Automatic annotation (TrEMBL), chain A:
<feature type="transmembrane region" description="Helical">
    <location>
        <begin position="107"/>
        <end position="126"/>
    </location>
</feature>
<feature type="transmembrane region" description="Helical">
    <location>
        <begin position="12"/>
        <end position="33"/>
    </location>
</feature>
<dbReference type="GO" id="GO:0055085">
    <property type="term" value="P:transmembrane transport"/>
</dbReference>
<feature type="domain" description="ABC transmembrane type-1">
    <location>
        <begin position="70"/>
        <end position="259"/>
    </location>
</feature>
<dbReference type="GO" id="GO:0005886">
    <property type="term" value="C:plasma membrane"/>
</dbReference>
<comment type="similarity">
    <text>Belongs to the binding-protein-dependent transport system permease family.</text>
</comment>
<keyword id="KW-1133">Transmembrane helix</keyword>
Automatic annotation (TrEMBL), chain B:
<dbReference type="GO" id="GO:1904680">
    <property type="term" value="F:peptide transmembrane transporter activity"/>
</dbReference>
<feature type="domain" description="Solute-binding protein family 5">
    <location>
        <begin position="74"/>
        <end position="404"/>
    </location>
</feature>
<keyword id="KW-0732">Signal</keyword>
<dbReference type="InterPro" id="IPR039424">
    <property type="entry name" value="SBP_5"/>
</dbReference>
<comment type="similarity">
    <text>Belongs to the bacterial solute-binding protein 5 family.</text>
</comment>
<dbReference type="Pfam" id="PF00496">
    <property type="entry name" value="SBP_bac_5"/>
</dbReference>
<dbReference type="GO" id="GO:0015833">
    <property type="term" value="P:peptide transport"/>
</dbReference>
From TrEMBL, chain C:
<comment type="similarity">
    <text>Belongs to the binding-protein-dependent transport system permease family.</text>
</comment>
<feature type="transmembrane region" description="Helical">
    <location>
        <begin position="132"/>
        <end position="157"/>
    </location>
</feature>
<keyword id="KW-1133">Transmembrane helix</keyword>
<keyword id="KW-0812">Transmembrane</keyword>
<keyword id="KW-0472">Membrane</keyword>
<dbReference type="Pfam" id="PF19300">
    <property type="entry name" value="BPD_transp_1_N"/>
</dbReference>
<feature type="transmembrane region" description="Helical">
    <location>
        <begin position="97"/>
        <end position="120"/>
    </location>
</feature>
Length: 280, 496, 315
């Protein structure tokens, strides 16, 4: 494996992710057509100069829907990973600091959360609180917490046992101070790499939840729900199902490439993750 | 490799079957596979409201004293005939003789008494118990005569007794009907592959004319594109209530299929919480009525199949009056009414149950309402939540739902119904109708009731849900309309 | 090893106990009345009350919890509200679809993913390697329900080679039943196999770079021989851990895929039961799924510890 290819991955990932995020942001202020505007007389229009990707079953412009539809997957994925990162990394680091009961309890809670299928949490949340973007974020965020607990626990354990942390303790610094000043910078690389990998999973997860009717609610479009609606129309207009699926795929791939590239840039020895890329 | 070999073998098999079917000397078919959308929770129509139970069992496995035919008329069933006393309070049913349940036991007045008493008992879980409230007592005069005594005249009784929830069950097998339905119908229950299909076979001891079909399979295929593929591939022969109108043109273009667009009793309404501000103001409700574009709705949500309605009444029923012109689509009039009511900048929640007619209509209505200045927040929900939040707790502004019960003008006269419509005039009119025996006068009253609902703009009246039937062009005898949720297969046969 | 096992089992039991309380509590806050769902809009309050009594929903919470949990222990958690058959029978019947589906998907994923990974590792840096990596990147990024839709469009709607959905039951013969599982299993397996191929390739590459393999190659073995004789066994450790990590995804995937293909499996059951508010079925199935994930976790952890004694991650 040569370095050029890896750099290419970082670049490609950054371009795709940047492009999708930009598209989502732009869609909030401008889209070729109003993505909520119905034009039933002009439904199922094929791709053409007026509508580049055609129109859907209610005559809405598919390109505009696709642009606005990026807001859900990207937004939910980023927020959910943030929830998982903040809660999980804090808990993981502190668990590694203390050992004993608190540590044990944190790790067991993490195992427990991990055993709960995220999909079921999502379904139960939908039924209790009603569907919505916020619930998708929470459901996926809960799923991320144990992952980040494990990662940050494993990575920070050796740091806590290092000499300078012992020195800081002797100097009377509290755990939180040490965690912020000494431990966090040391595990930041690991967390960055994991974050970008998890973001790609987040996009997939949001799409799955939207597909089963959770997540961004109509009339606001989202890729997963576009797929759900297109499913019954497959024999009539396959493009309606192909376009959002491709959008999901490209976005997920972008985050994956970014993660692989970052891993290469930040972790050339493959110390962070056992199955990581390594250069010899 | 294995997958490839399997697909090849499968292709060969399909080809072989196709060749066989195409042969001119192929024997008369007597089997039938019908698609249904939802999985039945169980197979006892007297113990749950799910329409699919009736769609499988009604008139096939189970029969009632009376029977509702394809046009919604009441005809004799297990009762050959009936008489009503002069005061309208005693019905006497003469029961058919020589009728056997599928388990071999004989049907007589004991079973009829048992069925009705079970349905009105304090611990009854019959979904239509409310309709039986006028019944005072049921007794067997002799083995083949049943008398039903009423608290007050109820002209609807023979119709009520023909509903799926009031089919006759055997007094020894009533509790096992859920998994092993035992009725008197022309088909016997054979097997239920839970999650996939229900198999029925012909009942050779049937009292009436034997059906032409010998084996019937109801297959659960919920996804419209799967249903489309299953019909196209010949995995099923019929789908009598096809869930996706967008596919109909493709079936219409294919000579192998017959497409029949009929009517249901499903009056689809934009339900409004009449007690909640600002919907308690008739001007706001009328504004909403003016903002509803029925043509657009029927085109957009139903692909043009379906009839507009102007009140809570199905056009095919006697007494119908066309009120669809009362509030023409007129955004300007809607805005003016809202201004007059001082209700500008409204924000309303629209609760949508799962069926696609509701979800699709909801998006269209929301867009039209936005156009006249009402912000609409769509809240999709499952039936369970709809039943508690909207129906029971009345915690909603707007909702879209199809009312499929025939002759249900009484719901607007109820005190605690979820529309929260409280009109003494309407109640008085309805009481008059309930007591009226004369058909002419009943029709006049029915018209006044419809008129009153429209005048008060109680709900937004949208359209009558169509019954979209698709079946193999060689099949005959299916119901064109759906006066009740049923697939009466007694008259269905393959063309010679 | 024995201590690790005992600790693992103890923590498993604790997880299950807490899970049972959490799940039961979640059922109680679920809005909706099971009786109303069954009897519909025309039911009167007294009818609903009668049904609730029949279903045992009028009992105090503690009693219902205890009845359920003690039932779980004896393998008979209760009777389904809607189907009126024992929940254990219902689950057993549905597992008859879900387990073969998951097994088929897993087998397919392994059968596709591992050889691809090995192939790429053996041709490291060459066109084959890059090709496999790119295909794997695509495969990982494909949402499995979308793949399912495309497969249906191609093989069921257009070519009509395979059924678009539904399940004829095992008594219709193994042939038709397996045919019905082909598309769902492929939809589940392809993304999984992409992950496996990537991991397999990387761990082989890692192992090949280690000293003992270099020694073997110095002794004159070709890369392929070194790979077969020395590297494979060691490379399986990460595969094992990835399989463990992927298991919950496979499970969640199965739930969604069963709904796309209308297969009467556990996933369909839980969706329907949630919609019909068949609480006893929902809580029993969720409990089962949690237990499966927890047990798989435990086993993977133990296997990991057994294969590689250096790994001791538990606190």
């Amino acid at each position: 494996m040569n370095r050029d290819f890896l750099n290419a991955r970082l670049l490609a990932g950054a371009i795709i992710v940047g492009g999708v995020c930009l598209m989502a942001l732009i869609s909030l202020v401008w889209t070729p057509y109003d993505p909520l505007k119905l034009d039933i007389a002009n439904r199922f229009a094929p791709p053409g100069p007026r509508h580049w990707l055609g129109t859907d079953q209610l005559g809405r412009d598919v390109l505009s829907l696709l642009m606005r539809g990026a807001v859900g997957p990207v937004g939910v994925s980023i927020s959910a990973v943030t929830i998982g990162l903040v809660v999980g990394a804090t808990a993981g680091m502190l668990a590694a600091s203390s050992g004993g009961v608190a540590s044990y309890a944190t790790l067991r809670t993490s195992d427990f959360l991990f055993a709960f299928p995220a999909l079921l949490i999502a379904i139960l949340l939908r039924e209790t609180l009603g569907p919505g973007m916020l619930n998708a974020m929470v459901a996926i965020g809960i799923f991320y917490i144990p992952i980040f607990i494990r990662v940050s626990y494993g990575a920070s354990l050796p740091v806590w046992r290092s000499g300078y942390v012992a020195a800081a303790r002797v100097a009377g610094r509290g755990s939180l101070w040490i965690a912020t000043v000494h431990v966090l910078p040391n595990i930041a690389g690991v967390l960055t790499v994991h974050t970008s990998v998890q973001l790609s999973l987040g996009v997939l997860a949001e799409a799955s939840l939207s597909y089963i009717g959770l997540g961004v609610q109509p009339p606001q479009p989202s890729w997963g729900r576009m797929l759900l609606e297109a499913q019954t129309l497959l024999p009539i207009s396959p493009l309606l199902a192909i376009a959002p699926g491709l959008a999901i795929m490209v976005t997920v791939m972008g985050f994956n490439l970014l993660g692989a590239g970052l891993r290469q840039a930040l972790d050339p020895r493959g110390a962070f993750i056992p199955e990581s890329e390594a250069v010899r | 490799m294995t997958v490839w070999r399997m697909t090849r073998r499968c292709a060969a098999l399909i080809l072989g079957v196709a060749l066989l079917c195409g042969g001119p000397a192929f024997a008369q078919r007597t089997d039938l596979a019908i698609g249904v959308r939802l999985e039945p929770p169980h197979l006892d129509p007297t113990a749950a409201a799910a329409a699919v139970i009736g769609e499988i069992t009604y008139a096939n496995l189970f029969e009632g004293l009376t029977r509702i035919d394809r046009e919604g008329r009441v005809i004799p069933g297990l009762a050959e005939s009936w008489e009503v006393s002069d005061d309208g309070k005693v019905y006497t049913f003469r029961l058919r003789q020589g009728v056997f349940f599928h388990d071999g036991s004989t049907f007589d007045a004991r079973d009829a008494v048992f069925t009705l008493e079970r349905a009105i008992a304090p611990d009854s879980i019959n979904p239509q118990k409310a309709l039986l409230e006028p019944i005072e007592a049921v007794e067997a005069v002799d083995a083949h005569t049943l008398s039903v005594r009423l608290k007050r005249p109820t002209a609807q009784l023979p119709f009520i007794l023909g509903l799926p929830a009031l089919v006759i069950v055997g007094h020894e097998t009533a509790e096992t009907n859920r998994a092993m339905p035992n009725g008197t119908g022309p088909f016997r229950f054979s097997r239920w592959h839970m999650g996939d299909r229900v198999d029925l076979v012909r009942n050779d001891r049937y009292w009436g004319e034997k059906p032409a079909l010998s084996r019937v399979t109801f297959r659960v295929i919920g996804d419209p594109s799967a249903a489309y593929a299953a019909l196209m591939a010949g995995n099923i022969d019929a789908y009598t209530n096809f869930p996706a109108p967008e596919h109909l043109p493709q079936f219409e273009a294919d000579p192998r299929f017959k497409v029949v667009v009929g009517r249901t009793e499903g009056k689809t309404v934009l339900a409004q919480n009449n007690a909640r501000k600002p919907l308690d103001d008739i001007r706001v409700r009328r504004a909403i009525a003016h903002a509803i574009d029925r043509k657009l709705l029927i085109d957009g949500a139903l692909y043009g199949y379906g009839d507009p309605i102007g009140s809570h009444f199905a056009p095919q029923n006697a007494g119908y009056v066309d009120l669809t012109g009362r509030y023409p689509y007129d955004p300007e009039a809607a805005r003016a009414l809202l201004r007059e009511a001082g209700a500008e900048g409204l924000r309303l929640k629209l609760a949508l149950p799962p069926p696609s007619y509701a979800r699709r209509s909801g998006e269209i209505i929301a867009e039209r309402l936005r156009d006249v200045g009402i912000q609409v927040d769509i809240v999709p929900m499952e039936w369970a939540q709809w039943l508690t939040d909207v129906f029971r707790d009345k915690n909603y502004d707007l909702s879209i739902v199809s009312h499929v019960e025939p002759n249900d003008l009484d719901i607007y006269a109820r005190d605690d119904y979820y529309f929260n419509y409280d009109s003494p005039e309407y109640k008085a009119l309805y009481a008059e109708l309930a007591a009226e025996q004369d058909e002419e006068k009943r029709l006049v009253l029915l018209k006044s009731l419809q008129q009153k609902l429209t005048d008060d703009a109680v709900n937004g009246f949208l359209f009558l849900l169509p019954k979209l039937g698709v079946w193999d062009a060689r099949l005959q005898g299916f119901w064109e309309n759906a006066p009740i949720p049923a697939n009466d297969l007694t008259g269905v046969r393959w063309e010679r | 090893m024995i201590r690790a096992f005992a600790a693992g089992v103890a923590s498993l039991l604790a997880t299950l106990l807490v899970a049972s309380v959490v799940i039961f509590a979640a059922m109680q806050v679920l809005p909706g009345d099971p009786a109303q769902v069954m009897l519909g809009v025309n039911a009167r309050p007294d009818t609903l009350a009668a049904l609730r009594e029949q279903l045992g929903l009028d009992q105090p919470l503690a009693v219902r919890y205890w009845t359920w949990v003690s039932g779980l222990l004896t393998g008979n958690p209760g009777v389904s509200h809607t189907y009126a058959v024992p929940v254990s029978d219902l689950i057993a019947a549905r597992l008859g679809v879900s387990l073969p589906l998951a097994a088929l998907a897993l087998a397919l994923a392994v059968a596709i993913g591992l050889p691809l990974g090995m192939w790429a590792a053996a041709r490291r840096g060459r066109a084959v390697d890059r090709g496999v990596l790119i295909v794997a990147q695509l495969g990982i990024a494909v949402p499995n329900f979308w793949l399912a839709m495309l497969l249906v469009l191609l093989f069921a709607v257009t070519l009509r080679w395979l059924p678009p959905g539904g399940f004829p039951g095992w008594d219709a013969g193994a042939g038709p039943a397996l045919l019905a599982l082909v598309l769902p299993a492929v939809a589940l397996a392809l993304p999984q196999s992409a992950i496996l191929a990537q991991v397999m390739r990387q761990s082989l590459v890692d192992v090949l770079a280690q000293d003992f393999v270099r020694t073997a190659r110095a002794k004159g073995l070709t890369r392929g021989q070194a790979l077969r004789r020395h590297a494979l066994r060691n490379a399986f450790i990460p595969i094992l851990s990835v399989l463990g990590l992927q298991f919950p995804f496979l499970l969640a995937g199965t739930i969604i895929i069963e709904n796309v293909f209308f297969l009467p499996g556990i996933g369909r059951l839980v969706f329907q039961a949630v919609n019909q508010r068949d609480l006893i079925v929902v809580q029993s199935v969720v409990m089962l799924l949690v237990a499966i994930v927890a047990v798989v976790n435990l086993l993977v952890g133990l296997a990991y510890a057994a294969v590689d004694p250096r790994v001791r991650r538990a606190a």
